[in-house]
Amino acid sequence: VDLELEGMRKNEEAEIDRLPIDLLANIFVLLTCFKDLAQASSVCRKWKQGVKQSLARREKLSFAGWTMDDDSITRLVLPAYNLKELDISKSRWGCQITDNGLYQLSSAKCVSNLSSISLWGMAAITDKGVVQLISRATSLQHLNIGGTFITDESLFAIANSCPHLKSIILWGCRHVTESGLLALVNKCRKLGSINAWGMRVPLHCFMGLVTISPALQIQPKGLLLSVERVGMLPVF
């Protein structure tokens, strides 16, 4: 009986070993938990290759809600050659993404093809890391950089590197000034939407932005209404 059981185990193991890497990759694409991917990658060399191929097939990666650091994110993004959308929003206090992580990500082959990036709430990043990443994201159309401490330096880099930008979220970016916004709207001629909630920018600046680009939508919607009301007040 023992010999039969041992033989059955060998046959089962042989069946697993016969699975082609392409099939393993298709299975691993279905995994959304990055912890599961990491564990699968450590099973054996063949599974590690399958995980790598599955990452290469993904067009979207979201780390929102996961406790990640610079190295762990880099390990997953570097093999994702076909990636179009990258979300590393900070939705947990344990997320430790820094400028070093953005520097590492900037070397990924997919960066020049990314159409969407979210750095929402990444309080540990600065202009230094953002400029490094954005300077290579030349296909970018949508950017969420709200809840960070960026300054006009980042906006100047975005204006110079992202001619296809269509929308940007600057929610709570209180260190951005009128100069950065003007550079952005003047150079990103496809820009159609700016979320400016919580920014410390004079209201008349937003009217100036709409004058440059009449189709520009500025959020929250009541912001421009407030500007118009101020403009209608009688002067004594």
Question: Can you describe this structure?
Answer:
Helix content is 47%, strand content 9%. By secondary structure, it is α/β, with parallel strands linked by helices. It has a seven-stranded parallel sheet with strand order 1-2-3-4-5-6-7. Helix 3 packs antiparallel against helix 4 (45-57). The termini are far apart. It comes from Escallonia herrerae. This is F-box domain-containing protein.
Total helical segments: 11
Which of globular, elongated, flat, extended, rod-shaped describes the shape? Answer: elongated
The neighbouring-strand order within the major sheet is 1-2-3-4-5-6-7
Terminal CA distance: 103 Å
Round the mean pLDDT to the nearest integer and report it.
85
Percent range for helical residues? 40-55%
Per DSSP, what share of the residues sits in E-state strands of 2 or more residues?
A: 5-15%
Strand tally is 7
- Quickly give the structural class: alpha/beta
Radius of gyration: 23 Å
Runs with pLDDT <50, length 5+? 230-236
Major sheet: size, sense and barrel closure?
Answer: 7 strands, parallel
Taken in chain order, the helices and strands follow as: HHHHEHEHEHEHEHEHEH
